[in-house]
Amino acid sequence: MDSMKQYIEDAEKSLLHTYNRYQVVLDKGDGMYLYDINGKKYLDFCAGIAVFALGYNNKKYNDALKNQIDKLIHTSNYYYNVPAITAAQKLKKASGMDRVFFTNSGAEAVEGAIKTARKYGYLKDGKTDHEIIAMEHSFHGRTMGALSVTGNPKYREAFGPMIGNIRFAKMNDFESVLSKVTDKTCAILFETVQGEGGIFPAEEGFLKQVKSLCQEKDILLILDEIQCGMGRCGSMFAWQRYGVKPDIMTSAKALGCGVPVGAFLLTEKVGQNSLTSGDHGTTYGGNPLAAAAINIVLDLFEENHIIDNVKEAGAYLEGALDMLTEEYDCIDTRRGMGLMQGLVFNMPVGDIIASALDKGLILINAGPDIIRFVPPLIVTKAHIDEMLSILKTCLDETV
Ligand SMILES: *Cc1c(COP(=O)(O)O)cnc(C)c1O
């Protein structure tokens, strides 16, 4: 038996089987490419699910982490550390938000956002029965709070009861949101561009109507920018393209480009009227190593003009995917913004993705019928052409 098969067999004997993994053991990466343990090369349009924005094996990124490892990895949040202070400052500057809490993951950032919203409501009226409106088809993570606001009944079913007082509305349907508002509503939460649920960007009108509803009723607008943020949609955070600022924002995934980090950010008003000392904590969140990752990521975004590249490559990818949509009857439409795109098929896409992997192209789905394109943000037109040529071969063979 070859060693790849052996590793996979070993994995299936030891790891909890919560993923149907592709039959490949990855070993290393360089730029836009990944290599498996047999040295086979893959063009990567997944980026570890919208994580590795800067591409693999970026020397400056790696060196910054190595330097920090040799200096100090962890202290606990009882003490200050310089990387966390500068990371918070840079993140404030990039987002225009005022207060930062660092977490270890996206789900944990969502948990913090939920607690913040509930505390904000509690400080207003002393009650503990506030409601949060979330969206159908949303995804916010797998911990109990984040799962409770995730609009996919399949993910929630076996794990009830969820946290209480969550009401689901339809994304991009303002009337549906309005019909869920009560005097207990403390927050409205959604992804600026829905990711796992099928790449649905918020419509500008919807976002603006929800924002003014929130202002009118003193409800907090929480935007989950974990997948769509960090430059992926052509601005540092996707909401910046709409000019609609949230009261609370979550970030993770590309924020650390591989080091597990997340954050929730608040406006000053929410910061002053919600969580206070003793209300929330984390052992690792914002530790020097995690913060060093955020610092170097934000520096390299500027230095390498990442967002300019997203605009250019994103427009090219959009055009190319639109052409594919015209060309193939099995594709219904394209949806997305910048380098977060989905091709909506009228059939399951599992076989196409498997065939692409076989031919050295890594793609992922977003639901059974959608191929999702979330490449590293350093992708070029040449990489997009290379991806298209493999994908077309797969389509010609499979459909
Ligand atoms: C991935 C994701 C999360 C959860 O992040 P984890 O780091 O996996 O906990 C939450 N919200 C959105 C929009 C995501 O894409």
Quick recap:
The chain has helices at residues 3-14, 47-50, 59-71, 82-95, 106-125, 144-148, 153-156, 174-180, 204-217, 239-242, 268-272, 288-303, 306-327, 350-358, 381-398; strands at residues 26-30, 33-36, 41-44, 99-103, 131-135, 166-169, 185-191, 193-194, 200-201, 220-224, 248-251, 262-266, 331-337, 340-345, 361-362, 364-365, 370-373. The protein is α/β, with parallel strands linked by helices and 399 residues long. The chain folds into two domains: 3-54 and 305-398, Alpha-Beta Complex (Aspartate Aminotransferase, domain 1), CATH 3.90.1150.10; 60-303, Aspartate Aminotransferase, domain 2 (3-Layer(aba) Sandwich).
User: CATH class of the largest domain, anyone?
Assistant: Alpha Beta
Structural class by sheet pairing and helices? alpha/beta
Topology, number of strands: 17
What helical percentage do the residues reach?
40-55%
What's the CATH H-level homologous superfamily of the largest domain? Type I PLP-dependent aspartate aminotransferase-like (Major domain)
Unreliable stretches (pLDDT < 50, length at least 5) are: none
Question: Ligands in the structure?
Answer: pyridoxal-5'-phosphate
Biggest sheet record: 7 strands, mixed
- The portion of residues forming beta strands comes to 15-25%
> Do you know the CATH topology of the largest domain?
Aspartate Aminotransferase, domain 2
Task: Count up the helices.
Answer: 15
Shape: globular
**Distance between the amino and carboxyl termini:** 32 Å
Instruction: Give me the Rg, rounded.
Output: 21 Å
Task: Give the assembly state of these chains.
Answer: single chain
When the domains are counted, the total is 2
In the CATH hierarchy, the architecture of the largest domain is 3-Layer(aba) Sandwich
Strand order of the largest sheet: 4-12-11-10-7-5-6
